[in-house]
Every structure is written in C-alpha cells, then in structure tokens.
Design a protein that fits this description.
Elements (H helix, E strand, L loop, with lengths): L2 E12 L6 E3 L4 E5 L10 E2 L4 E3 L4 E11 L5 E5 L10 E3 L17
Antiparallel strand pairs: 1-6, 2-5, 3-7, 4-6, 7-8
Length: 106
C-alpha cells in the first residue's frame, strides 16, 4: 500500500484551562475514508510547547494519506493522560489543490 497524497492541516489550539498544558502537533492524527488505522503527521512547523492559560498556538501539519481518500476525521491524543480516549476534532471539508506540495515537498 502506498500513500501518495498530502493533506495539510492548519490547527488552532486554545488553552482555555486555568493551568499550563503541553501541546505537540504530533498529538493530532487523521483517519481517511473510515479506515481502521490512524495516520501520524510527516511534518509540522511547531515544536512541542507548554501553553500558558489563555494562550493559543497555530500549527501547520502535513499528513501523507492514501490517494483514494475523499473524507477525513481528525483525532487528538492527550499525552498528559495516556489512558484517555482519543478526542475527535471537528474537521472541515478538504480542498484539493493538485500539485500544491510538488515543488517543496516539506
């Protein structure tokens, strides 16, 4: 099986709690076309960070996905609680832009 397409996700994260929270873009995973497995990111532009209360972070995260994927679900893994269930994150429809990453392949 070869994954041949990229999905670039822009993720906005807000710490609305009253305490510091760890965040890493690697906590976000994708599921394509209701497949049983989750896809981890292959690149992102934000190092793991300790978020202070009331702060926000924005990350661009690239995933390599199956070429026939037409719909996606996103899931967040809480690294502070490894026994916790994955949290499904709302994800808008994907806009296809053929060749968008062809030149840089970041």
């Amino acid at each position: 099986m070869t994954f041949g397409d990229h999905v670039l996700v822009r993720l906005d994260v807000f710490n609305e709690s009253e305490r510091e929270q760890m965040f890493s873009p690697g906590q976000l995973r994708l599921r394509a076309n209701s497949q049983p497995w989750l896809v981890v990111n292959r690149w992102n532009d934000l190092a793991p960070v300790l978020m202070l209360p009331g702060t926000e972070e924005r990350a661009k995260i690239s995933f390599l996905v199956p070429s026939d994927a037409t719909s996606f679900s996103a899931f967040f893994d809480d690294i502070a609680d490894p026994s916790a269930e994955l949290v499904e994150v709302p994800m808008p429809p994907v806009k296809w832009r053929p060749g968008f990453l062809e030149n840089s392949h970041v």
